[in-house]
Every structure is written in structure tokens, then in C-alpha cells.
Amino acid sequence: MEKTRWTLSELADEVGLPARTIRYYIARGLLDGPDVAGRGAGYGASHRDRLIEIRTLQSEGRMLAEIAQPAAVALPASETWQQYRLADGVTIQVRSDLAPWRLRRIHQIIADAAAQLKQEDAQDGNGQL
């Protein structure tokens, strides 16, 4: 039966590294701290696997700073938006990748709304409601 919990010294023996090196990796952020902290600190299979991965990456010529860097996070696809200012305090945003017929229809609706707002602003300026 394979062992799944180790003390620091047992883990060091398991992976062939000094305990001091494992502590250093934890301090540098290359390895998570023990699952159980304190006098009976315990390390699991994930710690062993990560230490083996670190050794492999080092043997490939990678520096510890490079190994410590988190994996790049995939960003969502970018979207392009068109912004239209219809009146003071009124802005509309429309996604640019819509079908051309839909964009033409939206542009017409925006033009109509802008004209309506302009007319209402002119009436408010003349004292009319």
C-alpha cells in the first residue's frame, strides 16, 4: 500500500531533497505549506508530486523564479463596442460584431431616439413641457 502522508523528513527522503530545500520552496511560493501545520506537520501526495515536477523543470533548465510563476490565465475573447452619445447623460453601447442588417436597424433606432431627445431638450429650453 502506497503511503499518502509524510512528515517533512519522510517527504525529503521520498523525493531525495533536503528538508531545508523543501522549506525554501514553501517560503518562495513554489510549494504549498503542509496540510497540517505545527509539530505534527503533514504533507500529502500533491506535495510529493509538485516536488518531483519542480525537479523535472529544473533539470530542463528552468529557473526557480520561472517555475514559481502561476500559469497564464486565459482571457475571454475581446469584444468591440460602438458608443453613441444621444444627449447629456444618455449613452448607448452596441456590440460591433452584429449582422450588418441589424446594425443598420439599430442605427436608425438610435437616430430616431436622438432626434426625440433633442426635440424634448429644445422644448424644455423654451419653457414648454
Q: What topology emerges from the helices and strands here?
A:
Elements: E1 5-6, H1 8-15, H2 19-28, E2 43-44, H3 45-59, H4 64-68, E3 81-87, E4 90-95, H5 100-125
Antiparallel strand pairs: 1-2, 3-4
Q: Which regions have little confidence, pLDDT < 50, spanning 5+ residues?
A: none
Helix content: 40-55%
Form type:
rod-shaped
Radius of gyration, CA atoms, in whole angstroms:
31 Å
CATH architecture of the largest domain: Orthogonal Bundle
CATH class of the largest domain: Mainly Alpha
As a percent range, the share of strand residues is 5-15%
> How far apart lie the N and C ends?
86 Å
Oligomeric status:
single chain
Counted up, domains total 2
Largest sheet: 2 strands, antiparallel
Structural class: alpha+beta
Sheet with most strands: strand arrangement: 1-2
User: What is the CATH topology of the largest domain?
Assistant: Multidrug-efflux Transporter Regulator, Chain: A, Domain 2
What is the residue-mean pLDDT, rounded to a whole number? 87
Total strand count, please? Answer: 4
- Compute the number of helices: 5
Question: What can you tell me about this protein's structure?
Answer:
- With 129 residues, this protein is of the alpha+beta class.
- The protein contains five helices and four strands.
- The chain has helices at 8-15, 19-28, 45-59, 64-68, 100-125; strands at residues 5-6, 43-44, 81-87, 90-95.
- The protein has a two-stranded antiparallel sheet with strand order 1-2.
- A hairpin with a 2-residue loop joins strand 3 and strand 4 (90-95).
- The longest helix is centred in the last third of the chain and has 26 residues, at 100-125.
